[in-house]
Amino acid sequence: MPRIKIDHVKCTGCRHCETACSLNHVANTANPRRSRIRVMRDGNRYYPVISGPFVDAACTSKQLIEIEGQHYDMCAFCRASCPEKPYFIEAETGIPLKCDFCGIPPSPSCVRWCNTGALELVED
Amino acid sequence: MNGWVGRCLRVNLTEGRHTVEELNPALLETFLGGRGLGITVFSHEVSPETEPLSPENKLVFSSGPLVGTGAVTGASCNVITMSSLTGTIACAKMRGHFGAEMKYAGFDMIIVEGKAETPVILSISNDTVRIIPALEYWGRQTSETEDMFKKSLDNQWAARETFLVSIGPAGERQLPMATIINDRFLAVGGAGIGAVMGSKNLKAIAVKGQHSLEVADGDRFVQVVNTLINKLNSAPLTSQSMTQWGTAFLVGLCYQKGILPKNNFQQSSVSLKNISTDALENAFALRSRGCFACPIACIKKTDMKHHAYEGRGMVPTYLAIGSLGANCGISNLSAIGMANMLCADMGLDPVAVGGTVATLMELVEKKIATAEELKIDLRFGNENAVLDTLRLIATKKGHAQRLGPGAKAIAESYERPDVFMGVKGLPLAPFDPRAIQGMGLHFATCNYGPHHLYGYTFIDELLNVHEDSDPSGIEGKPALTKRYQDITAVMDSLGLCNWPLMGLKFKNFVPMVNSCLGTHYTADDLLLIGERIWNAERLFNMKAGLNASDDILPKRFTDEPIADGPGEGQVSRVNEMLPEYYRERGWDEHGKPLPETVKNLGLED
Ligand code: SF4
Ligand code: SF4
Is the CB of A21 under 6 A from ligand 1? Predict the structure, then answer.
């Protein structure tokens, strides 16, 4: 099954993936807040996160994540369109968002516009 | 509306009020947005006689129509005001994410007028506009300001999506070389703008928004953007050099051609230790950082484990390496990096401040100024003295007060105006105009002072991307200079970054513009808009008292040949090129736009 592999070290925080996604889902519209991929910022670093459904179980198995000496709350990387974090709730409609592998195959639209290799389509 | 939001936010700090206005569609068609629209609005509202640091001056933040739509490199927001350094119109380019966020918040333009009684921060979140007291922010460095502001927000998720433009201590003290910092990177060409912001007691503007932007023909637009990304990927400069090292890759090239100046343009930097890309890679751990919707990501950050960087430093660009490094005789990259970071934290423009330091260094070398008198040992190559000076200038304490007014004023105060290497009050960007003639012509004529990022002639003269143009020749240079000046003006107005010109032709952008905005421009239509903007700026400057005598390079460049290196023996032939340049532009011999030029461009009052 094809999946999108994320390499956050390569991500430049350009948010081109966000605009690609919204242009693909809402006709003629660019708006990162309607995108199903969002780039979380933490200081100088960027972490792309692709949205998925919200389940309670996600919150009960939370762990502290350590990346290159820095500690992060797992919420920052969680892909659930949960009501606590407004990232994957569509701003104008309130609908929870979920990635649907949009765009012209083989590459989803975000992968196509991501020029750094941070997003990559892989088969496994 | 497609691309544009169509709304402008006007904030009056004196009265603490704001209003929302509709933008005039006719102006959008003739000036597009960004720089063009900003200049027009500014020149209609502010008299050229205005004192730059008075409440009557205004600050116009103007984002282009393509910004935030996903158009390739559509990130640029321009800040227009009258600069206290040059006394001319000033226009800084802010890339990063501020411009896009401003549009998501629902505004193409923010006009700030008046003066707040005490320091304030302007906070815009969707349609909520607030003017917040900011006394506790005053005196803070820009990175601190950003962190503090974000911490003060109730919703930490929203804080992550908030973008700031702020001034540092230099702007607060209204130093003419103060600039503004956007999302932790220095605005390009912002000398003097930080001072204006400081004079209004405006510490920062924060934006966050969630409105949608519309594009005219989404399917076509997505296709065109795909094509442009692929094109950028097949061009060597945009897919390798720029992505790997950012503009710093130019250092090696300029060094080889004798264009990189040393010691206040007295020598060419051939005698300096190599400060090119390999050295850069050894000195910094490079990681890329992109402006909004940019596939090139030329900004380099470093996670260098140096205590002073604390993992937050930006790797110096060509501009910083040239101005703060080579031209001050310094070749130690970590010192240059530190100087660059100090500039960002203090809110100083690297070109303006680098030029000031270099001027003083030459005065010391010539024994006109002494170390005892300056209380600082400003010899060429003394990196610690430079770092100390940067810290002192921004705080304007004690003996550093005399450094504050900038290079030109310092040179004049020692009665040696000839050691000031600049035009219109702004020190030269680090390109020796004797070794690159078209750039020299641009430096002399640029409306904003001698800055290479308002006329990218080096793309052809140095990099030979679109045509082979010999840097030392003058044939065809007036036309080349005009063309790049116009292209830059129109790209700034659309909200595009200009670096993709290293991989794309100007005409490649046209389908993207039209599918986004629903317009039918041809490349020539757009270039005409660029020309209109250039002339509008020129007319404003002339009303502010500038004339052909300000289109002049310092004597060093026209009279003294380069002393060493590959460019040895050359002088700038700018005075030979000027008459032809004026003709190309449709100006008279005194550099004044002819009545028919003004009429053809639709610029009559
Ligand atoms: S695959 Fe499609 S839906 Fe999912 S994030 Fe990418 S563009 Fe959006
Ligand atoms: S497009 Fe790629 S590099 Fe840019 S923000 Fe998205 S994941 Fe990061």
Answer: yes
